[in-house]
Amino acid sequence: MMAVAQAKLEKEGDDCSLLPLVHDIIKCMDKDSQDVHQELAKLKTRIQEAREQISNMPGIESSPLEQQQQLATLREQVHTKNQLLQKYKSLCMFDVPKAS
C-alpha cells in the first residue's frame, strides 16, 4: 500500500520547486507584463498541488512518536527475520544441486 502511494506521488510531479514560477513572476513584473496574473495563478495552483501531495503522504496522520514506534517495530521485525534466515541457512537442510 505504501509503495502504491509513493508511486502515485512520483507520477504527480517530481518537481516540487517553486523557484522557477517565482522567477517567471519577477520577470513579468520587470517587464510590466500583463502575464503576472497568469503566473501568479500558476504559483497558486502549484502550492495547492503541493498541499494535496503532503496531505496524501503515507503516515502523515501519525504523530512523530507513533512514527518512531512503528519504525522501531519494523526494525525489530527485520532483525528477527534476519536471525531466522541465518538459522535456516546454518541448518544445511537444503539440497543444493551442483552445477555440471
Automatic annotation (TrEMBL):
GO terms for molecular function: transcription coregulator activity. SUPFAM superfamilies: Mediator hinge subcomplex-like. It is found in: Nucleus. The keyword Isomerase does not apply. Keywords: Activator, Coiled coil, Nucleus, Transcription, Transcription regulation. One of its GO terms (biological process) is regulation of transcription by RNA polymerase II. Transmembrane segments: none annotated. Its main location: nucleus. GO terms for cellular component: mediator complex. Component of the Mediator complex, a coactivator involved in the regulated transcription of nearly all RNA polymerase II-dependent genes. Mediator functions as a bridge to convey information from gene-specific regulatory proteins to the basal RNA polymerase II transcription machinery. Mediator is recruited to promoters by direct interactions with regulatory proteins and serves as a scaffold for the assembly of a functional preinitiation complex with RNA polymerase II and the general transcription factors. Component of the Mediator complex. Belongs to the Mediator complex subunit 9 family. This is Mediator of RNA polymerase II transcription subunit 9.
